[in-house]
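Minimal example, chain plus zinc ion.
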Amino acid sequence: MSFQRWKEDLIELGRLGRRIPARIDAYGQLAPEKGLFRLEGTEEMRQSKEYVMARMREAGLKVRIDKVGNIFARKEGSKINRGAVMSGSHLDSVLNGGMFDGPLGVISALEAVRIMNDEALENERPIEVVIFTGEEGSAFKKALLGSLILVGKMPVEEAWKLENNEGLTLKAALDRFGLRGDFEMDLSEVEYFIETHVEQGPILDQEKIPIGIVENITGLTWVSAILEGEENHAGTTPMFARKDALVAAAKIVLFANRRAQEMVRELGGSTVATVGRMSVLPGAPNIVPGRVEMGIDIRDGIEEHMKNLMDEITGRMKDLEAECGVKTSITVPFYHLPHPCSKVVVDTIEKAVQGMGIQARRMNSGAGHDAQNIAEKVKTGMIFVPSVKGISHSPMEWTNWEDVERGIMVLTRALKDLSKLRI
Ligand SMILES: [Zn+2]
């Protein structure tokens, strides 16, 4: 394998969209002010997609773009009428993100195909390298956008109308750069999918295990709540007469945290609940808070647990109406079911790892990925590589080059095997 090829690709993609332009090739060069802002529909995204498409064409792949800007690059198979093996990820970042979340999966898949080319390997099934549109939701406010449309959970016309912060629709943003095509990928012609991704958690790094084989992609739901109390003077309003929206919200923060911990203790599993967003209005020290807007993130590998915790939290909020005199309104912006990975794909990855004498462990994915949508239609698996200190969605996100390389080797082996599987 040419060591420089994939590394150069990741470094170049890491340069595009950084606030402070920098070619970063070592952990020590990372800095909090050097975050990546590569949002879907921006000039930096155009450059990134053009860069990768050029590499895809160099590798002899046939590049096709669908109606929402998902990009597919195909290496034909030697046997016709066999379902394809697909692999890839996304190129967009969160606001102030890092350089591995997404691009690692795209470049790993591309490199796997280049290795097969170098070895003049005849894959029987076609191989499709995919770049999903707008996975992070940072521009068009809808996470996992490209895969959502691919599996038919959102109509194309509806997606086209989504607007970014500049008021530009997805359709206009894609058209601006000629990145809207008319190809339609039929997932019934895809047999297997593997997404390689950084773990985004601390387990592999702490346990010094280079490869994670994902068994379950976690379910994820958000609860958005508005708590309305009564804004009043902090000096003259006696404690008994208050309708303090923040005091009520604080009870929810503690309740969600305590219940998630109890569930993990009692049931095992991977339940997590986080109140990560809260706006306190009017937001002055001398005014009793009249309104709180809060966002709660709930995740679990088991749907029943996720649903129960969501019901408990929303039920607890309703109790606050009597307890704290606040009115509550609750919305659930999305509810993604957990998805088990395909046994065939998981076993293939495990076999690949064992064949190469690389240490690995099975695990759940705690973050949302396009793979969870694709898993609804296609036999799907994920390969995780370690995130240094478990950090991601941050300028300090890093994966060591030797771990990237091992991930590519495992993916390549798994894609070779899957492209010949006769199931
Ligand atoms: Zn990602």
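The first strand starts at residue 62 and ends at 65. The longest helix spans residues 245-267.
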